[in-house]
Amino acid sequence: MNELPARTTFFGACPHDCPDTCAMIYEVKDGKLVEVRGNKEHPMTRGGLCVKLKDFHDHHANPDRLIYPLRRTGPKGSKQFERISWDEAIAEIGRRWREIIAAYGSQAIMPYSYLGNMGLVQGINSGDPFFNRLGTTVNEKTFCASGSSTAWLLTVGPTGGVDPESFVHSRFIVLWACNSISTNLHHWPFVLEAQKRGAKIVVIDSYRSRTAKAADWHICPRPGTDGALAMGFINSIIEKGLVDRDYVEQHTHGFEELKARAAEFTPEYVENITGVKAADVAQFAREFATIQPSVIRLGVALERHAGGGQTIRAVCALPALVGSWRHVGGGLLQMPLWDFPVDWMKVSRGDWVKPGTRAINNLKLGAALTGEMKLDPPLKSLFVFCTNPVSQAPETNKIVKGLQREDLFTVVAEHFLTDTAKYADIVLPAAMAGEAEDMMWSWGHFYFTYNQKAVDPPGECKPTSDMWRLLAEEMGFDDPVFKMTDSELAAHYINWDDPKMGGVDMEHFKTHGYYKIDVGAADTRAPHKDGKFPTPSGKVEFLLHDAKNFVAGPFRAMHEGDQDGSPVDPLPGYVPNREAPETNPERAKLYPLSIISPKSHGFLNSCYANEKHKIKGQGEQFVLISPKDATARAIRDGDPVRVYNDRGDFEGVAKVTDDVNAGIVVATLGYWRSLNRSDGSVNSISSDAHCGLGRAPTFSDNLVQVVRVN
Description:
Blueprint: E1 8-13, E2 23-29, E3 32-38, H1 56-60, E4 70-72, E5 81-83, H2 86-104, E6 109-113, H3 128-134, E7 138-140, H4 146-155, E8 172-176, H5 180-183, H6 188-196, E9 200-204, H7 210-214, E10 217-219, H8 226-239, H9 245-251, E11 252-253, H10 255-262, H11 267-274, H12 278-290, E12 294-298, H13 308-322, E13 331-333, H14 344-348, E14 359-361, H15 365-370, E15 381-385, H16 389-392, H17 396-403, E16 409-414, E17 426-429, E18 438-440, E19 447-451, H18 464-474, H19 486-492, H20 506-512, E20 514-516, E21 540-541, H21 585-590, E22 593-596, H22 612-618, E23 622-625, H23 627-632, E24 640-645, E25 648-656, E26 664-666, E27 702-708
Parallel strand pairs: 6-15, 7-14, 8-9, 8-12, 9-10, 11-21, 12-13, 15-16, 16-17, 22-26, 23-25
Antiparallel strand pairs: 1-2, 2-3, 4-5, 4-17, 18-19, 19-20, 22-27, 23-26, 24-25, 24-27
């Protein structure tokens, strides 16, 4: 009998911008990655992968991958390139940068990255040490969770909050602006288990998402009015005598002031703003207070409007008012990042940032490149890695215009020739997850997950970490961090002496693949049963004193300077949308519909949106529109439509549905504009305005018009 060829297995960790951070198993045969599956032993992953990752091995073998360095030969955006060697590419980058530094200074160069890979070694922050050493402009990275993080840190401090595995003990679960089934799939079984045990599942979202349809109760506020809704819940809890007086007196600061601020937010007043019936406002407040443990899972979409930061401060007040924190499975889950013993200063080397160095926010890339932002010195070079801003950043038409500048030297490290990479002067082929060692923290659970190198990269692809080593050598940097191996870096960035690491070392990861940091068992963890919040007062701070707006260190290379610094409202509250018919009626005459742009079910941001089978599963760019709005525009289900405002436009297929209310349209993001019906995507219409806290985006605070395309 012939024996089957042996397969070798390696531990993997999903690198993507997703709270699940799945533990995976790579299978290799004859030097090729032949299968990737979920790790059955991992308590969150449980052996399953989402539709995005289930054929991750095929993604590695995609014939369209970039496998050699390229130099542009034609006009920017023409996709005309020639193959060059790594030596040539690195030498040209070094030469161009030295010329720019001599003429303009090092701040004329800027890195630009995000969570295309969230690993400590290969991901979003991996280039920080090199660029901080070079003295470039600091890139402030605030696509997701920066506004919620600022609000969270100001209100409850750097706590990891409720363990997602503890949700099985919850009896009233609120998923607020979180489409778990599409974007947090591996938390959903814990929610379902709680439901089987009798818990009530409530989804608060401005359209009927997959998760909203699966919930016991869907509360549907108008986009950007969640702050008024949260203040209404606070008002009802107080007015109906549902406050846990003992918890509030011992473990909160500013209750009387919050009570006064919330006084005007009666259920009737809130109904007028949000469209949520007054009776539902009162019912939610009663049930959230009395059905314990009650818990809220905050979605990143909650910050994406003008009042997003204030909204999250209000939501953060709710569990403290009713004493939810007393219970296992009670309180709030935002982002466990704050409990991970990662030494972010070692990761980013913020100590290398020179005093007076500027920070440019990644949402403002278009303004920075086109001269709209008055910069001295102007940006003369951009190094893009782990992100695709022409798909993911707002005001993308402006970004394209900036990338077309002949005097801008652009380098892009990528897997494919994306809508951003096609404007590069130099393209560097990057390794994928199975081809490089890494360590993942998570923004959705408490596990460190180790990623082993399973196979060699194809062609001449290199891990991102290798690029920094090569560039450091080219620029004459001999600091130890640039000579460390990937294994050494993975270990270097973790505080092993922290009690949460439980005495394990790298050998544990190489044997088991993951480790849950010691934050207490999910069946007993109640981190703030007795208060002890990591705030200046040790309490939940409803009321702030002289607080200033800021972006948390890990989002800005641990750079302490050039913060926003504007005063923060002492109390949470409601800040209306900048763009809404009620607040901007003149704009609404031209663009009467509010648009929401959630993440796609089949893509991971813009990853996979160039693969035909993924596009087939996701469907082409669609626009959900209500029957009333469709009828008024002579739009039928399946009609091609154009969505536009003065910032740009995109085309898609209309889906006429009751899943959205009149006055609202929904179009998921991630689609490549070059593969859409027209050269545009949903972020062509998005504003680059920040929300009130943390310089977060306002992707859900935009008005558009929709017309049928003949």
